[in-house]
């Protein structure tokens, strides 16, 4: 017979073991976790405040297992996004010198004029051309300026190297690098 004082440190572990016992046939990781922590003193760990899936009623548990949302989950928890939104990350500190890095996609897709304006192609200029009219294709081939918000964002994504003045031979944008006749 085991004395009651010997079982006190295992008080919070009983809850984990009972949950693990119910889930062992379904999840082998839980059995490994229980065997690993069975010798430790887990008195400082609080039992979970939110009821687990194992403690829910069976119809609700079936809905959760098969991916259906239930009225209990809709009321308390924020919705989980269904897809991962793509982002273009900016490296603030490089590993070699600790300097900012230029996002290469910006340099490839946009052209910066020396006055600070950015030039780009219209979106969709090479997509599904078979269904677009000739006038629409001509409009899509045109170059347009980025607005102020986009220009500020693109300036943040490039380093000073790409903001310096370049003197290219036969540059078609030579007359647009400096803005003239501006009323300030």
Automatic annotation (TrEMBL):
Taxonomic superkingdom: Eukaryota
Subcellular location, record wording: Mitochondrion
The name this protein goes by in its record: Large ribosomal subunit protein bL35m
Gene3D superfamilies: 4.10.410.60
Transmembrane segments: none
Alphabetical GO biological process terms: translation
PANTHER family reported for this sequence: 39S RIBOSOMAL PROTEIN L35, MITOCHONDRIAL, LARGE RIBOSOMAL SUBUNIT PROTEIN BL35M
One Gene Ontology term, aspect cellular component: ribosome
Family, as annotated: Belongs to the bacterial ribosomal protein bL35 family.
GO molecular function terms noted in the UniProt entry: structural constituent of ribosome
Keywords attached to this entry: Mitochondrion, Ribonucleoprotein, Ribosomal protein, Transit peptide
Gene from which the chain derives: mrpl35
Keyword Mitochondrion tagged: yes
């Amino acid at each position: 017979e085991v004395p009651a004082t010997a079982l006190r440190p295992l008080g919070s572990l009983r809850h984990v073991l009972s949950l693990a016992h119910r889930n062992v046939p379904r999840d082998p990781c839980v059995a490994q976790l229980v065997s690993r922590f069975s010798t430790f003193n887990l008195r400082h760990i609080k039992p979970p405040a939110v009821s687990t899936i194992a403690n829910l009623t069976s119809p609700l548990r079936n809905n959760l297992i098969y991916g259906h949302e239930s009225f209990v989950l809709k009321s308390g928890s924020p919705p989980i996004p269904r897809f991962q939104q793509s982002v273009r990350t900016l490296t603030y500190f490089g590993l070699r010198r600790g300097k900012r890095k230029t996002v290469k996609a910006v340099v490839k897709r946009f052209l910066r004029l020396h006055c600070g304006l950015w030039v780009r192609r219209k979106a969709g200029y090479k997509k599904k051309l078979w269904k677009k009219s000739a006038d629409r294709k001509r409009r899509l081939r045109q170059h347009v300026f980025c607005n102020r918000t986009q220009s500020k964002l693109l300036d943040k994504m490039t380093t000073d190297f790409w903001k310096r003045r370049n003197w290219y031979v036969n540059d078609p944008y030579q007359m647009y690098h400096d803005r003239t006749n501006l009323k300030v």
